[in-house]
Amino acid sequence: MNRVSFSRLLAGVALVALTHVGPAAAETMSSALARAYRNNPDINQQRAALRARDETVPAAKSGWLPKAGVQGQAGRQWQEVSGYPGSSGKFSQASYPAQIGATVTQTLFDGNRTANGVSQAESAVLAQRETLRQQELITLQAGSTAYMDVLRDTAVLGLRRNNIKVLQVQLQQTQDRFQVGEVTRTDVAQAESALAVGRADFAAAQSSLESSIASFRRQIGVDPKNLAPAQPVERLLPKTVQAAIAVGLEEHPAITGALHQVDAAESSVKVAEGALLPTVGVQGAVSRSVDSSGQPGYNVNSASVVGTLNVPLYQGGQEYAAVRQAKEQLGQARLAVDSQRVAVRGGISTSWGQLQAAKAAIVAYEAAVKAAEVALNGVREEAKVGQRTTLDVLNAQQALLNTRVQLVSAQHDRVVASYTVLAQIGRLSADTLGLNTPAYDPADHYDRTKNRFIGLTTADGG
């Protein structure tokens, strides 16, 4: 095999898996992420959790609405009377007493606990929406990583497979030269050893690809087939790391969600303080009794409207402890915001650095690949005239293979890092990526639920 053939065997596979699109319709990064956005169970579980959280708002508003009930009882009563004044002997009588009534109660003032409870519930809904947004962000980032992992490991597997072909040819040529006395048995052993190592590396690459396929299936929901090349999303990123940090501190769902939790905690303090205030209410009742007091024919109709006032004076200190606890939880929520800001800032700085390193690595490894190709060709020519050994040739081939693998990994890292930065600033979403899938609107369910005070079916008909 001539020197050009060896180079072509290695170069021809270097980026095939990252750039080749077969005749069938290719799965693109966008279509894969759209599939994950629609069907990923982690996202769907968070959507269900948000719908459940929406129901806390009408539950909190119930404190503003009247409570109505109907009570009734009926039965048979028998009594025997003796020694009744003015009567001799004894007598008995049976009656069928029955009573039915209705009551309606309306709270007029409850220390603003209902109003603050509604505010708390609404803030909790907003916080849950941010939790959903963060789960979408996490899933899309994991999906993009899984997509690129399959591309990378497919390319590496191709390089490893091609390396075995090169080493087989090298071994055959070394054996032929050994037969004519040009090289020693040591050269043959070195070629055999290199081929064995190449086969072991190929097996390891197969294992890595299977693992990446499993991760793809878990995140996207289907097996990867005919994946198209993917590009970094740097066009969607701020120009500088300082601008990226500013965006992240403003928009990342972990921070905005924590701020909504602070709002909920503030309302919780007010709810607890409301237990120390008086409550005012009114109750109306109507009833009808038949055979009242066991007297046949004695029927009573009644109606009443009663105002109530309850002023708590001292309840054993429970309310005071609840207020103090709520205040401590408010302080904890505020500290959680600071903690999230620190985490987001650190995540952006780290991922931005990884993106810049990957871009620089691509430039370096592209140059390294070209240099390694030249070096391999030169070593092979020198080996033909006895200036280089078989081991020198094998080392040069391995150096070229390693640089090609590193180039593929750097290209993978650049795409993954760009998605990671977009996630860290809080902008990795179906809308930002322009995915061809209907966006999930959490406000739709909320609007159909927030003032729904009767009915057992869910807003979606469940």
TrEMBL record:
Regions annotated as coiled coil: 355-382
Domain of life: Bacteria
Subcellular location: Cell outer membrane
Entry-linked PANTHER family: OUTER MEMBRANE EFFLUX PROTEIN, OUTER MEMBRANE PROTEIN TOLC
Keyword annotations from UniProtKB, A to Z: Cell outer membrane, Coiled coil, Membrane, Signal, Transmembrane, Transmembrane beta strand, Transport
Signal peptide (UniProt feature, chain positions): 1-26
Originating species: Rhodoblastus acidophilus
Stated family: Belongs to the outer membrane factor (OMF) (TC 1.B.17) family.
Predominant location category: membrane
Single GO cellular component term: cell outer membrane
Keyword Cytoplasm: no
Protein name: Outer membrane protein
A single GO molecular function term of this UniProt record: porin activity
Region of interest called Disordered, as start-end residue ranges on this chain: 61-86
